[in-house]
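Readers of this paper often ask what the protein records in our data store actually look like. An entry from our holdings is shown next, in its original layout:
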Amino acid sequence: MAFVGGEDARGLARFAGMADALKSHRLAAPQRVQTAAGSFFRAGREALVDIVTHHPKTDAAFFSNDVIAAGALFECNRRNIKVPEQLAIAGFANLDIAPEVTPALTTVHVGSQQIGEKAAQMLLARLGGATDAHPVCDLGFSIVPRESA
């Protein structure tokens, strides 16, 4: 398996989570493919080239966001790499593009609105003088299975 993402805090946390999950199932750590700053289709295309060139036995890749995952899907289509038969691809964020690409992108959904609401509540409480012993909240996630994985 491969993980594709940047050096930003969210990308690093997603890589760590994937590595921990694989380890807990006694599977090998994922190959890490680093992308340049920014979440663009080009980064996904370049990551796919890196995977094919340097990690040819990879049969599944998790991308730290849907935009770079879509770029990888575009490159797979150009190279006639069958997704998910030859390479399963999953993204993160469940952006509007995820169900529109071919094949439709499997992704991780997080409640962006819920995250924003909780952050605002915590900020308002802190501005009101409250102290929170638990400033980190786990609001959960869900897997949105589609055709790419």
